[in-house]
Write a sequence for this structure.
């Protein structure tokens, strides 16, 4: 992986050590708060996700779980607190006790350590499935065009879409589109993969095929943070489930603890409603 | 036109046939064999096949007949009214002065469009910047150049020497140009004045068209590009612009087609583009109508070519917006000719290796080709 020049040599060494193919990075969310026009959507949230761990965020609509997920790759900025991935701040450099905003190019480079899969897929409609997957490695000069397309086809067969490479997104079903989107996120070999309600926009009979792919990805050592409403899937795939409500973490634990023996009343109410 | 239907299809059509008000509100018994409810058997149980009688669109046919008559009347007068003086038209249509005027109009259109859209793209991007430091100047530019008439712009640039006799680089806020210095009147010729005026004017309009196109792209596309770490240039040129093009192109072609005729304002600086040229000629020989027709027919020809180009360019950018694009008019004609040739061939039927067989094969090939259009 030929990364562009980093700012400081120390930082470079640090970045290298955290990067082995198929190895996840640790995500540390520290005291993050965020408000939108007066409404506080995240209140002093702290959460550490270990390298290779699979963590599911559950909670009612508007609980802040999607916002929290998006702070991890700096798509959402935070008002206070910090987020690090493999020890690196995605949007900032720590200098003299303050976080300095990084130039955009550097933010983009650091962001490639984190992949994001959207609820509405957000595939590029004017590009074929293969082009959708290959555009990032090619644009970031990580791979040549032919090599990237060859890898894109390999990724497509990994998500069960062999032979669909030349189709445009609109020629694919919702479940197939989401699987292409997962392949696109995998193309940069991220250390952390974020899923933002990956099955919420799908017809019920297409949910299974997408969950199957996520299950497969969960087994390969990448750190996964998943926002989902599929409680059964969360129970099966997660190492840990985190329950959020009104912008704060109410309770967390193993699937067994949280879903079967919740200690908080709010968790009990939510779990009894969705199970 | 009658169609036999399966019992299931017949049931589906029943509610319409059973004398209910029609969707378009027309009474159920217009001319033609409109069904009256009494005539309907309870076909659902008998399973009998029913024929569907298409409604007759009398209004459409009457309108079409009237329009055809009016068009025929006009074409007849074009051919027979001697005052159109088609001889004079033919004499001047390819006259060197007219052709060079047309060349000038095309040159100004092409250069004005290229410069206008290049500058317009920059302005649109500035205008969309979250920072008012960039968006406010872009807004001001657009406001100014949409406010000032193009004629005035061209005149001001042509007469710039009156305001600023020399232009150059030197000490700020003075006319001490010790680095480089030009005589304004020598630098800004009539052509340069026209081109600068047209380009700035077009840029203001183009920037709004491009901005509209960019705004039409779903925000999720930018989020996805950002999440993938795509550099700004890739985001703009490979993700946003190709999708924005769908919304930009129809308006952009409008602007270009408007400009080809709009270039006629350069007569104010005595540039002999086509419209100015025919005016000069008819002021000399008094043949006003045929010479105006010369200019109009040239404009119509250019507009036709641009419209055809528009169709294919838009089609190119429609990639991925629908599962299968409809065939182009050319493909439709070819497949229709193929079908006709095929039916001709099958009528000749039993003459095996003759042209009939080849025709059928060709027709089949054309039909497959037409169906196979996926982009």
């Amino acid at each position: 992986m030929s990364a562009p020049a980093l700012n400081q040599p120390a930082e470079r060494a640090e970045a290298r050590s955290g990067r082995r193919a198929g190895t996840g990075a640790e995500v540390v969310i520290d005291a993050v708060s965020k408000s939108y026009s007066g409404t506080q959507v995240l209140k002093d949230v702290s959460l550490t996700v270990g390298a290779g761990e699979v963590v599911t965020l559950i909670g009612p609509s508007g609980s802040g779980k999607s916002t929290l997920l998006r702070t991890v790759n700096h798509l959402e900025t935070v008002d206070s607190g910090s987020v690090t991935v493999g020890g690196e701040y995605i949007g900032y450099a720590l200098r003299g006790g303050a976080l300095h905003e990084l130039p955009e190019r550097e933010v983009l480079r650091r962001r490639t350590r984190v992949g994001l899969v959207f609820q509405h897929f957000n595939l590029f409609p004017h590009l074929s499935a293969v082009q959708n997957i290959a555009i990032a490695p090619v644009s970031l000069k990580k791979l040549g065009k032919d090599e990237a397309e060859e890898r894109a086809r390999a990724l497509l067969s990994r998500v069960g879409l062999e032979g669909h490479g030349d189709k445009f997104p609109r020629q694919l079903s919702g479940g197939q589109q989401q699987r292409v989107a997962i392949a696109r996120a995998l193309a940069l070999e991220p250390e952390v993969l974020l899923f933002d309600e990956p099955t919420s926009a799908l017809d019920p009979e297409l949910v299974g095929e997408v969950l199957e792919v996520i299950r497969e990805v969960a087994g390969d050592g990448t750190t996964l943070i998943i926002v989902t409403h599929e409680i059964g899937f969360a129970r099966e795939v997660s190492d840990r489930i985190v329950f959020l409500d009104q912008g704060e973490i109410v309770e967390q634990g193993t699937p067994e603890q949280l879903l079967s023996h919740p200690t908080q009343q709010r968790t009990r109410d939510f779990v009894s409603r969705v199970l | 036109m009658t169609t036999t239907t399966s019992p299931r299809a017949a049931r589906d059509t029943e509610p319409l046939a059973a004398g209910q008000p029609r969707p378009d509100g027309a009474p159920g018994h217009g001319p033609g064999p409109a069904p009256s409810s009494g005539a309907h058997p309870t076909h659902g149980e008998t399973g009998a096949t029913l024929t569907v009688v298409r409604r007759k669109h009398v209004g459409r046919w009457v309108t079409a007949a009237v329009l055809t008559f009016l068009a025929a009347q006009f074409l007849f007068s074009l051919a027979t009214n001697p005052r159109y003086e088609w001889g004079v038209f033919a004499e001047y249509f390819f006259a060197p002065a007219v052709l060079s005027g047309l060349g000038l109009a095309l040159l100004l259109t092409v250069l004005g469009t290229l410069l206008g859209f290049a500058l317009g793209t920059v302005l649109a991007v500035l205008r969309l910047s979250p920072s008012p430091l960039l968006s406010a100047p872009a807004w001001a530019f657009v406001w100014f150049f949409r406010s000032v008439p193009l004629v005035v712009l061209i005149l001001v640039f042509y007469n710039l020497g009156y305001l600023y006799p020399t232009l150059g680089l030197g000490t700020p806020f003075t006319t001490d140009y010790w680095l480089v210095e030009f005589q304004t009147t020598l630098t800004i010729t009539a052509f340069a004045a026209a081109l600068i005026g047209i380009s700035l004017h077009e840029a203001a309009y183009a920037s709004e068209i491009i901005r509209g196109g960019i705004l039409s792209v779903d925000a999720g596309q930018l989020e996805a590009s950002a999440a993938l770490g795509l550099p700004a240039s890739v985001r703009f040129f490979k993700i946003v612009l190709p999708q924005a093009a769908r919304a930009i192109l129809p308006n952009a072609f409008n602007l270009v087609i408007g400009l080809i005729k709009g270039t006629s304002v350069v007569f104010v600086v005595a540039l002999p583009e086509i419209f100015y040229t025919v005016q000069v000629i008819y002021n000399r020989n008094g043949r006003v109508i045929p010479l105006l027709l010369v200019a109009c027919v040239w404009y119509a020809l250019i507009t036709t070519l641009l419209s055809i180009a528009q169709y294919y360019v838009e089609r190119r950018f429609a990639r991925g917006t629908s599962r299968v694009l409809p065939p182009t008019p050319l493909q439709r004609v070819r497949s229709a000719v193929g079908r006709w040739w095929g039916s001709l061939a099958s009528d000749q039927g039993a003459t095996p290796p003759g042209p009939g067989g080849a025709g059928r094969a060709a027709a089949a090939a054309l039909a497959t080709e037409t169906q196979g259009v996926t982009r």
Summary: Confidence is low (pLDDT under 50) at residues 1-39, 350-375 of chain B. The interface with chain A takes residues 218, 220-221, 223-224, 226-232, 234, 238-239, 242-243, 317, 319-323 of chain B (CB under 8 Å).
